User: Fold this.
Amino acid sequence: MRSGWLAALLVAGCGGGGGNSGGHDDAPMTAAQAPTEAAQAADVNLLPLVNPFVGTKIGNPNPDNQGTGGAVGNTFPGATLPFGMVQYSPDTGYGEFYGFGGYNYDKGVIQGISLIHSSGTGCSIQQDISMLPIVGNIASSPGTHIENYQVGFSHANEQAVPGSYRVGLNNGVNAELTVTKRTGASRFTWPATNDATMILNIGRNGVGARSAQLEIVGTDSVQGFVETGGVCGGGGYFVYFHGQFDKPFASFGTYQGDTVTPGSRTAARAQNNGGWVKFAGGGQVKLRIGVSYVSTANAKLNMQTENPAWDFDGLKSAAQATWNATLNKVQVTGGSTDDRTKFYSALYHSLLHPNLFSDVNGQYIGFDNKTYTANGWDKYATFSGWDIYRSQVQLIGWLAPKEASDMAQSMVVDAEKGGGGYPKWPTANDDTCVMVGDAGAVIVANLYAFGGRSFDTAAALRYMEQGATQPGTRSRNCETRPGLADYLGHGYIPIETPNLWGAAASAEEYALADSAIAQFAGSLGDTARRDKYLTQAQMWKPLYSKVSGYLHPRTAGGSFKSGFTRTDGAGFVEGDSAQYTWMVPQNYRGLFDRMGGNAAAIARLDEHFTQLDSGPNSPYAFMGNEPEHGTPWAYAFAGAPYKSQAVVRRILSDLYKTGPDGLTGNDDLGATSAWYVWGALGLYPEIPGLGGFVLGSPLFPSTAVRMGNGRTLTINASNAGANGTYVQSLKVNGATSTRTWLALSQLDADTTLDYVLGASANTAWGSAAADAPPSFDAPRTTTNASGFFSDFEAGIAQPDWNDTADFQANVGGFCCGLAGMETSTRRENIAHSGSTALMYSGNDTDATRSFSYNKVFDVRIPVTASTTLSYWIYPQGSAPNSAFVAVDLIFTDGSSLRDSGATDQNGVRVHPEFQGRGGRLAGNTWNEVRSAIGQWAAGKTIARILVAYDRPDATGTFRGFVDDIRIAP
Assistant:
């Protein structure tokens, strides 16, 4: 970490505490020493290139884009610090659509100035601890009639710079705001008047405060709390404050509901309450106010510690210096002023959240509502899980590993105190249950992968596993993975599963999270868990219909949802099948193979990007929302990175602007802004839990990234800009490269990327299969094992393949538009042992020759003379051909068990046709099949286990189950 940045942060009041308060010590693991930082360019003044107003008004007039929080960034323009506890910003309304950040650029009034905001949510949140400077008396209650006191203003009299904000109100009051990490500092200047009044409208906030309390203390101080819900009103928390003015009160009063009480010092705990204070003669009045989620005493301590001297100008300078040092972590040069403004405005908005949650003494409130002390680290809160896991937290990990480590540790202790599962969208010390998936697990894995390594990784993996394997695991009142039992039992989540938003979307999210867990486990050296979760990460595959070519919902019986159209949003979340089909970044190779190969996938991507931001029920892209954020980079996996380069450049140019209308969708606590940062750098962290980047084309001629590991990444791009969309060539530290993937481990030392860009596509660069970024399918066994067993229960070997034929002819789906033989795990109360078995089903469509040999496991097992195979099979009597199924083995020399002549304990060949003709497999019951395969295959090595159907002389359906497959030495 650069010493200048650290010094600025310390001046601004950053830092974790020690403290001796109650609760056990949640200190993370000891951090390793970072390498000495290489020589770097001097800081330059980047603050003029940041426009905090970006995202404060509608950016896309398309009415189809209004259903996901509006086509507006919902940002706020006020004063804050990187990841600070306080966001001191004006409010043009409370909880209003197109203004969930508190500020709608198109409104010309201010109803309050509050201390707590979030940037870019799609529904109401915070706006806690509101105040409003007016000239006049209090007649009607501001708690119920704030519109009577709102004050007009003009943007011509407004200025926002990172770390500070100023507005001249139409009533003659000038309001100036700045911050430290845990406090707000303000300077209000009234005209000469005896009606200089500050309304403290603490019972009013964005979600509707559940209660609030105000005390007017002595002649110059106020304190109290707000009790409220989190994002979208979910969950609940208390936030406390203590403020002090530098001028004594001339008079004061309180209100509750419609009742106004001059001279009262206390607005008791209630709704729609607050108070006011007056200052004789008007003029300049300073306010310092501390915030805490623990107590008013801690709020006062934060205030006294971080703002001891009333030095508004000094604090403002320190806040701006902190931001300038932070922004200088990425120095871009060249390019247009507009592009640099877009870039630094995006970088600024990317680094606002999550937020500091522990006080200067280290105290914080846990998810169990008890007070704990963070010793040697800082507690963070407010994670917009579903949004930020895709690219924003990776940026934090890469640039700020200390903060990233503390954020990961924060999530771990939230899981510990909240019920064993990671929170979905925590606000303060409660989960809100907002959005779907298991975002917390992905956040922790990504923070680790990109540099945040100093936290309790063993506990982190333990809570990941608990959420991924134990149905009912919770974070406070929120189930970590609703529908998990069905996900594990069916290999997908049936659309009729209750208490679940978006069955198909949730299954895809769980598979993506499982992929992140696998990468995290692998990085910790736990290869067994890595392989287990890489296998589980393929549970998107049963949702892929070979008939439609899209992922879409299925019923519990296995049929795909009837009446399918690719623009149907049923089963999805803020999107449709056309958009969610691409959301498998862990295994694009597997998706493209199902689509028919690279050429077919590229053609479909081309059609998809005909429009860039067409809303949630469209066959085209919806880049204003997060599920599609990775899709533009998918071309690189198909050997056409030049098409990614073109699409990304269109998005950077068309969907982002420099003004208040600069975002076409919610910024979602920096998620949308982070996408711009990565796109402009020509890097994208596509694969969940894996440190590395898909490479694109840089927007700027020169970029220097001061990475969190103390090293510098230099990106030079000859011909960058409007005429430099396409990569012509690349050198990595002087060596020519055509690879479109850059592993983060390649950046352990100072690294230089030298691009040559051009106006025409170089279709050859990055097109070879070896150039593509990695895809992660189920692991294929390459190590010899003496035997094998699976009962398809959690924690035991699971299928490497789902519904995948090794070879087949004339076998269709069992019903309902299915295109082939199915082989995937199910929980249908028919298991031979436990609760899960492998279901098989299909439809024989030809009376002369029909078969399907489906891949299930890849293994490597040498066969000895004593090796045996055994399994249990349950043919369902309702389907006439159910008994014509057997477990088959493929050997490394290409031969098979079915052709070896091997027989079972009854002398019947272990071949699906002969098993069916043998008459010994009873319907609707479990039958054991045993074979001493060593008599026929000794000396061979088993490479694959299959479940096969084969009947040459009849048509008809088949369905049943296989369980307890065992190969014993």
Residues 1-38 have pLDDT under 50 and may be disordered. The chain is about 20% helix and 25% strand. The longest helix spans residues 503-523. The radius of gyration is 31 Å.
